[in-house]
Amino acid sequence: MFTCPRCGAATPPPLCRHCGHVFGTIDGVYQLTEDPNLNLDEARGAKYIGYDAVGASYYDKDYADSACGRADLLLAEAMAERIGRGLLLDLGCDGGTHAVPVALRGCTVIAGDISQVMLTLLLRKAAANHVPPGRILPCRLNALAIPLADASVDGVLASTMLHLISDHARVLSEMRRVLKPGGSLMLTTNSPGIRNGPAPAAGAAPAADDPNGAYLRLQGAFDGRYWEILNQWGVRASYASWGFDQFAECAAAFGNMTHVHIPFEAPRTWTLEEAFLHRMRGRGYSRQQSVPDDLHRRAFAQVTAEFVDTYGPEFGSVRFAGGYDGLDLHVFTK
Ligand SMILES: C[S@@+](CC[C@H](N)C(=O)[O-])C[C@H]1O[C@@H](n2cnc3c(N)ncnc32)[C@H](O)[C@@H]1O
Asked: Which of ligand 1's atoms lies nearest the C-alpha of 143?
């Protein structure tokens, strides 16, 4: 059950039962907010980082047209079971990483994100995976004011998104509000399963015996030098809200927490070029969103030239060997 963007009454989309408003759509995506994709100015309200620009490089390979991965299908089965194959709000759904497999497992999914680019990718991913019509309702919305009525969904999924919003307490209270009594808030984490590779080290050196030490040192050094140059030019990283324990805060708000561990082991390996350099070159890390494009290109080119001088032209071919060693789901019941 949605709230009408014009009169605020509870109604199913697309035609408001109360005022007759027809919900606007762009490219098949319901437009349920007029907020911008990105707000890095606290004076305009809570900060958040939508993925319009991030996604352009994050998912520019064949992501949107490819089949769901086995890890995502397994996680989806656990989530679908948990909410009795009912109605799930996937908040910060990005390109459909979870929304698509959960829909394939029999749930109806309100796929909500502030990024129109991500929602467009989600529609492609849904088509590529033959999701039955009507199973996914793609919505451009702001998690800070969820356009759903109180107690309207069986489950809410917030997967690696709370850290992108400075006022996560408000998002948490919104998620709780839209859950039915007995409904589940589910959080996933990249740990211990590795999805997209390790985050660049924030000043911390890898252990001397770490088999991926060479990769991690190069990645950390490249990242550090890039920001050193930008800081000299007066540009700072755009952090929204990284420093809080999402599990502890949700447990405090709900008064309970269940940890579901799904056994899943699979090796994964990639080069520095394929993962880190590719994404960083495309300004695909959220903290790069405040960097003007021309300064980003100059800084990236300068660090690349320095690294070629120091480590040789093949420095991007250093390899990381990792893998999934289980999937984790944290569940909080209303
Ligand atoms: C790291 S991605 C999450 C990916 C996905 N849920 C997963 O687990 O793979 C974070 C997503 O949150 C979205 N986002 C950021 N701020 C938001 C907001 N205020 N409202 C809705 N979505 C937001 C971004 O656009 C992005 O698609």
From this structure: 20
Q: What is the mean pLDDT of residues 99-109?
A: 98
What share of the chain in percent tops pLDDT 90?
Answer: 71
User: What is the reported pLDDT for 129?
Assistant: 97
The number of beta carbons lying within 10 Å of the beta carbon of residue 193 is 22
Report the separation in Å between the CA atom of 221 and the middle of ligand 1, taken as the mean of its atom positions: 28
Q: What is the pLDDT of residue 24?
A: 95
CATH placement of domain 2-194+240-267+324-333: 3.40.50.150
7: CA distance to ligand 1 center in Å?
27
Contacts of 77 (CB under 8 A, 6+ apart): 105
187 pLDDT band, cuts 50/70/90, is very high
Q: State the closest ligand 1 atom to the C-alpha of 37, by its place in the atom list counted from 1.
A: 25
At 237-259, the pLDDT tens digits run: 988 876 788 889 999 999 999 99
Q: Quote the ligand 1 centre to 307 CA distance (angstroms).
A: 32
DSSP line for 226-262: HHHHHHHTT------S-SS-HHHHHHHHHS--EEEEE
Residue nearest to atom 9 of ligand 1 (CA): 97
For residue 265, the cross-strand partners are 325
Q: Give the span between the Cα atoms of 105 and 305, in whole angstroms.
A: 48
Instruction: Tell me the domain boundaries of the chain.
Output: 2-194+240-267+324-333, 213-238+269-322
Which pLDDT value is given to residue 130? 97
Report whether pLDDT(62) > 80. Answer: no
Q: What is the pLDDT of residue 61?
A: 65
Assign 22 to helix, strand or coil: strand
Protein residues with CB under 6 Å of any ligand 1 atom:
48-51, 92-94, 97-98, 113-115, 118, 142-144, 159-161, 164-165, 188
Ligand 1 nearest-atom number relative to CA 188: 8
Whole-angstrom Cα distance, residue 330 to residue 184? 10
